Amino acid sequence: MPIIELIDVNKQYDSDSFAGVQDINFSIEKGQIVAIVGESGSGKSTLLKLIYGLLSPDSGTVKFKGNPVLGPEEKLIPGHDSMRIIAQDFNLNTYAKAYDNIAGMLSNTNLQLKQEKTEQAMEFLNIAHLANKRVVDLSGGEQQRVAIARAIITEPEVLLMDEPFSQVDSLLKNKLRDDVRRLAHELGITIVIVSHDPADGLSLADEMLILRNGRMVEIGAPEDIYNDPKELFTAQLLANCQVISATDAIKIGLKPKKKLVAIYPEWVKSAGGWSGKSFTVVNCYFKGFYEELLIERNGVHLRALNVNAEQFRKGDKVSVSISRCLDFD
């Protein structure tokens, strides 16, 4: 039995006929990390609130271990007892110490146990040295760790995270992703993340769910839906791919099967030999250990990745091979 299951779930807001979610069906297994990814306003946060019980569906059912999740109309304090949710603002007492924010989730019936569990949670997230600092004096990444420790100290079975990496810089994101991965693998917590950044799901999740305008576009393992998306929207969201018409695809030597062709930049590479097609370098964009080339052939522009930085200059001719492409109607 899946730990979480959504069956024909619909939720629409009266104030906006386009907001909410429609016809949502999926399940989550215990211990999985699931990322719900989509553009702003696609219904990600609504879906998270439905899972937690902060909202009730207009129709359909949300289940936890086979039992319906009670909504705010049926529960005095909304939210499922076996789940914890971390909101975008972290919901911390900013002028209290980090230790007190975390310990405050436990009762005072056993003070020694309360201290032990608080210290264990802080050690697990590498924030023991921040115990006596006020939350207001912590960085965004440190506050995020305090919020996670506060959530897991009560030993929930499911942790729901709304845009968990939106307030941290790129250097801290990888460290926080590692923390989230450890929560699932070492503590057995099922984790559901909503994010507008596809990298969060691609690098972290066991399964990704793509939302668009409140509807589920597709769901699957990150590798599968990245390499073989069913919808053009998914390819554009995950890979920032280029989309050209079948007519333009023919101009650069491709043999399209449908009306549109999507090409990922990493599929376009400089290559010698008879199989390559000659393109003109329009511009070069330095990216650190690689560069991105804007190239042109017969009026069709493509982006290509080149790991040998500074190899080409504007106006150079470059032989290019396109390893694959995706066809869409």
User: What is the beta-strand fraction?
Assistant: 25-35%
| CATH topology grouping of the largest domain | Rossmann fold
Output the structural class. alpha+beta
Helix amount, in percent? 25-40%
Question: What count of helical segments does DSSP give?
Answer: 9
Q: Widest sheet: strand order?
A: 6-7-8-3-9-10
Name of the level-1 CATH class of the largest domain: Alpha Beta
Radius of gyration: 24 Å
| Silhouette | globular
Number of domains: 2
The overall average pLDDT, rounded, is 91
Order of helices and strands: EEEHEEEHHHEHEHEEHHEHEEEEEEE
Main sheet: strands, sense, barrel: 6 strands, mixed
Poorly predicted sequence stretches spanning 5 or more consecutive residues: none
Question: Which architecture of the largest domain per CATH?
Answer: 3-Layer(aba) Sandwich
N-C termini distance = 37 Å
CATH superfamily of the largest domain: P-loop containing nucleotide triphosphate hydrolases
This entry's quaternary arrangement is single chain
**Number of strand elements:** 18
Short summary of the structure?
The protein is of the alpha+beta class and 329 residues long. The protein has helices at 44-52, 98-103, 111-124, 140-152, 170-187, 198-204, 222-227, 232-239, 246-251, and strands spanning 4-13, 16-28, 33-38, 59-64, 67-68, 83-86, 158-162, 190-195, 207-212, 215-220, 242-245, 260-263, 268-270, 277-286, 291-297, 300-306, 317-322, 326-328.
